[in-house]
Structure formats: C-alpha cells, structure tokens
Write a structure and sequence with these properties.
Largest sheet: 10 strands, mixed
Number of strands: 15
Keywords: Lyase, Metal-binding, Zinc
Pfam family, one: GFA
Organism: Cladophialophora chaetospira
Strand content: 25-35%
Family: Belongs to the Gfa family.
Bound molecules: zinc ion
CATH topology of the largest domain: Metal Binding Protein, Guanine Nucleotide Exchange Factor, Chain A
Shape: globular
InterPro entries: CENP-V/GFA, Mss4-like_sf
Number of domains: 2
Helix content: under 10%
Strand order of the largest sheet: 6-7-8-9-4-3-10-11-12-13
Distance between the termini: 41 Å
Order of helices and strands: EEEHEEEEEEHEEEEHEE
Structural class: mainly beta
Length: about 240
Amino acid sequence: MSKQNGHMESKQTGDAEESHQHQAGNSTDRDIDQWKHKEPYKVHDTERNDNFDVKWEGSCHCGKVTYQLSRDKPLAAKYCHCTTCQRLHGAPFQWAAIFHKSDINFTNGVHELGWYDPTNKDTSHHLPCKVSCAYCRAPIMDEGRNMILLFPPLVKDINTKKAREAFRPTCHMFYPQRVAEFKGDGIVKWKGLDNASDLLDDDENVLVKWEDGLDEDKMKAKKREFLEFTEKEGEVKRVKKSDE
Ligand SMILES: [Zn+2]
Ligand SMILES: [Zn+2]
C-alpha cells in the first residue's frame, strides 16, 4: 500500500493514540446490520438513565444527524495536513478530535450515515472509514478500529473560549503538505504521523530525526530537548525556540 494512502493510524499502540485513518490493510468486514448495535452507533436510551453524561452536542449541516458526547475534552486533537485529508474534506486541513467509541451517542440519524473507505475507495463499512451525513454530506468523523476521530466544527458552541480550549490541537501532522502557514503558533509539528516521523520546527528544519527502530520512549526523550511540557506529563506546553 502506498505511503500516501497509508497513514491513518499512528504506530502507537495505546488506544488513546489511534490517531488517524486513511490507512492501509486490516480492514474489518462486519455483518451488514451488526454495526447498529455496536459503539459508536449503539443508541443510548438517556430517558431510561442509560448512564450517558452529556458534555457536548453536535449536528451535521442539514440537522438529520445529531449526537452527544460524554467527555469534557477529547483524548487528543490534531491538525492533519496530508493531501488525502485536504481532498476528502475540501478544506486546507483536517481537524480531528479523538474519542472513545463509547463517548458518542447518536440522538438522531444513525440510519442517515454514509461511509467511505479511503483505502479501497468504496462506500462499504470497512474500518477505518470516513463517516458523513448521507443527506448533506457533512463529514462527521473517521471511525477507526478502536477510536473515533470526530470533526469539531460540528460541535455546538465550538467557537467559544471553552470549546477552543477543550478541542485545542496538540500537534500538526504531515506539516510539509500544508496549504496554509502556522508559523509561530507554538504547536508541535511532525513531518508525518505524530511520534513516528521527524519532529520539525516552523520552517521544516528537522529537530529530531525519526529513525527506524526508534521507539516511543526514545522519541519522547529526544523531544524533551525541544519541547516544554506542562506539569501534567505528556502535554506539550510550548515548542522551545530553536535559537534558545
Ligand atoms: Zn446532514
Ligand atoms: Zn490526513
């Protein structure tokens, strides 16, 4: 499978880090109707106290598809500048927020969803796949094998300070393929997938070269030279200036 098509999930194995999706191989076939009963499509009966704590709500453009989210903030949020994302979204880049499949509850339109499998270029429900409203075609999320990558512009009140903070991107992926500039935004930039490619500065100079066989821990140690972390381990506070 070509590299171009093959970057949708990060190499990291942790659930929280399943980052991305138009990826090659290992598509899962599902029985034609099985999906309706499984997360993320399993509809919670909130009136019967189905234990779904609503923190955010979202809807597609036409309103046929609506959903709730039960998590205060995504596990991570990222900007992807790869050309596949640009083309599939008709946008300069993809903004994706990672959630567990159990974090979403479709309150309307679970049967109005359409799928697209970018690996095979067909509309079957093979994972990972893109999920959109079948009527207005608004992209809703990418469904990976373990996680969903939700598109925050559909979230109600996303243009508030609280939402911008909650959905703040932690990195740029495939930064050299960008069609807009982000110089000086203080957000970590990767040549490809996060933590599995070269770490770049704003001008695409390589700060940490990715080498085959480099594992996540080693990459994290190397990153430390260039990034400042918050007290909460793992969260990047800012990118140190190269000349510091
Ligand atoms: Zn719609
Ligand atoms: Zn992408």
